[in-house]
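pinned: reference chain
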Amino acid sequence: MRKAYTALIALGLVSLLGDVVYEGSRGAVPAFLRGLGASAFVVGAISGVGEAFNLILRFVSGDVADRTGAYWSLTIIGYVLIVSIPLLAFTGRWEIAAILILTERLGKALRSPARDVILSECCKEIGRGKAFGIHEFLDQIGAVLGPVLISAVLLISNGNYRFAFSVMFIPFFAMLFFLARARRLLGEVERRAEKKEEKFSSREFTMYVSAVGLNTLSLIPASLILYQISGEVGAWAVALVYALIQLVDAPSALLAGHVYDKIRQKMLIIPFVLSILPAPLTLLGGKINLIAAAIIFGFILGMQESVYRAFVADIVPLERRGRAYGIFNSVYGFSALGSGLIFGALLQAGAYWLAVFAYSLFLNVIGIVLLNESWRKSKPRDK
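pinned: its structure tokens
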């Protein structure tokens, strides 16, 4: 058990340091591209194509991982490609910078499904909910530290983006150290004999992914909560609200993962019910409502990143799990994109909060019905 925890912490530190590099760079990249001569359209296009890369290629990488068993190879390649971010320090053309940014997104798509399989299988003796919760907790620490670090470096260096990106080589090489450590501790993922006649498109998994998709469509994005609150407070306070979301997310993932291992799938009901609230609170406006929406969103995000991923491993056999995580992550991502478009339009149209409440309630009621069916027909695996 001690070895499993050590390996889990090592893998969590890999994600933490990876987040320091690529999450830290997110706030700096648009201004850096602008300084290289990229237009607003080009910056938006690079961002959009990068996310499309990340989402669509997860289908492919998950399938490749299952067919070849190369879970560690894909994970390692994916993390190594994070080097694209510190390499931005050496480019003087936005076209080269764009290639490097897209390469990092490619790496994210390659590693995510394979890494989740490794996490679900090698740390199952700890408890999958707890394992994903600890991993998400460390991941979120990196997501907070990254922007703080790069902001501090830019402040000290008087806005020297090249110096800021070059500093990111330090967490990158530290990440490679812990990646090698995790690889030695965890070893290969032990594959089981696959039944050739078994098909992946199981009914319970399809219902579960559909439920998660509806739940995500019902949840207003954090960006729109921050957009609304920016009309109520100063810019510095908006940044604090974003930090508040991250700070709530991290312990929420830990707690949710721990509870999930005790009550299993019943835990999934909680984020579905909570998801009804942030959208109408945001539409109502006012500082108290918006801060409440941000806090609730943080709790939901922590649960999504821990117990949602853990349940996939409980209903999908190992030999199909890479593909399952690829599909799950893609559906989750495209639903989040749809949510942004829908709620953005509703905010712009000045929709009545009660109508938005009814919309969120409707989607989550259907989602809970599908969720109930998915676990009623499934048998948890490898407990």
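why pinned: Confidence is low (pLDDT under 50) at residues 193-201. Residues 2-186 form a domain with the Growth Hormone; Chain: A; fold (CATH 1.20.1250.20).
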